[in-house]
Write a structure and sequence with these properties.
alpha+beta, eight-stranded antiparallel barrel, about 25% helix
Length: about 180
Amino acid sequence: MDSRFILACIFMWSAAEANSQALFTSDSVDMEKYSGKWYEIATVSNGNSKDCHCTTADYEYLNGRLEMIDRCIVFKNGKSKMIESGSRGYPVDGSRNLQLKISPFSSSYYIIMVDKDYTWAVVSKQKQGKIRILYRDAYMPSTLYKEILKELKTKGYSVESIQKTSQNCDLVGERF
């Protein structure tokens, strides 16, 4: 095999690995501090979550795993319905709790940004996949939101498809 091809493959793998490491802006995550209620401020909507409003995530760290319950309200035909899904996250060895393996889905959950006081966080289902911006309150100041988007863009994330999640379900329900 051509040695130039092998060297090119090693270079591309090394560059991709270095780039993926640069996407994390937190050094590690304290799961006890990360536990609690989070409000989804914004996300990249997909088929499962595009109709969701008032989305929250409740996390509790127990016995080396993160119990995760996501909830949202869907409005259709003048009626509302609470959607709830649960899963467990197991910290991946050596990831400093920045990566969790999710059961029963066998997917990964990355905590890519969290502030020092654990009042906001940015998570992703893949390294550059579905982004969720989380906050401890239903309303995030717009200056902070813009700063987070700017930092995500600096780290190589596409922010164009991130949309704010409505947290005012009284107003959302009146529209239907």
